[in-house]
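Protocol check, entry for the methods section draft. Step 1: assemble the input record (protein sequence plus ligand SMILES). Step 2: submit for complex structure prediction. Step 3: store the structure tokens unaltered in the notebook. Ligand used here: zinc ion. Step 1 record:
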Amino acid sequence: MSDANSSSDPITEVLSSIVGPIWLKVGQMFCGTDHTVIADAHIVYDADGIRHAGPESPSRDLIRMGQEKPDLYLPDHTILPGLTDAHTHLFLEGGETDPAKRSVYLKLTAAEQLNHAQSRLKRLVSLGITAVREAGDKASVGLALQSRYWSNQRGSMPYVDAPGAAINHHKRYGSFMARPTEEYDSPAATVAARIADGAHRIKLLATGIINFEKGAVTAKPQMPAEELTAFVKAAREHGKQTMVHCSGNDGVANCIASRVDTIEHGYFIDDDQLARIRDADMVWVPTFAPVQFQVDQPDHIGWSKQVCTNLQRIVGAHSRSLVKAQELGVRVVAGSDAGSHGVAHGWGFIRELELMQAAGISAAHVLHAATGAGRERMGYAEQFGALQAGCKSRFLLTNQDVLNDVSNLRRAKIVVFDGTTISTGDDESQPGL
Ligand SMILES: [Zn+2]
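Step 3, stored output:
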């Protein structure tokens, strides 16, 4: 354990004792707006937000009266924005690896699911995850958490935005998190109903999932391009974005043709499709973690050797696509699919970042995907994900080399959330529940 876990941590003590704006000078600043780093940078913040961030000293009107120098100079520390997990299902505990126990979770009442989800949220901020984008549940757990975020009782919970129930077709993939569009007369009516429920965005299930036995997506996409286009149009008429579950080359093609906002998963995407996604300024959220879990622990499902070989080939191709996407300048945003089998909330996101790094992109590019890459594109209701004047004061301070290895995010760090300072020790543990 690190001494950062103790209440006598001197940095936390100083940050917690100051009334009014705090001025720090830090050895390395990762702003989150791209993958670059500023040496010996300054930040001034208070509970309301960041007042100043950059290489130059702040102007006098931004600091406390009479202050002549930073409250702290931390030459060995790196500061970076709080992390955003852009694909979570808080109603499910991915850390539960026993399939039988997982199915029990699905049968809990909505109130029980919400209770469990609230306790999962607590771990996120201390791990440095200060925002999540929910990806669908039928019991309105995500919507309830979103409401709680905007209430006056939220405390230090991450920003949450949610689509409510995902939208699928009757008897097609996704019924554990979706309600079918057949409940309404048209895509427009389905979208209107979700928005009436409080959805901040619309989640669509454009395809099924990968058939691991065959090593391919074998089912026809459940939503053709014309139908997706109707959903996208309806969502835009309400000022809402679409996030679309999609794997398989045909399904990706439909998503591109219909100009959805974000493509979730996107297994079997090809290089030409990546270039089109870039040109259309769409977002790709590759979600390595749920498939990698099955590569790492095939026994939970009883996968054969052949299936394991398929899984490895699929993850290998996905890794090459990630490297290509970065070369092409595609807007890649990190999301873990936490709640999926084997992907725990919080720890699963750090794992996702490790897998993106292992796929072959630099730690700094991974951190950009986890902070500011989606910031101006994803329609979040607040400014976060960057160290910039006007953004929320939600950031991490660490003396570990996170800029060269994202695994160091597991080590002791200080999290500042709207001005409140939380220090955490090393976290090597695997998920509990
Ligand atoms: Zn998902």
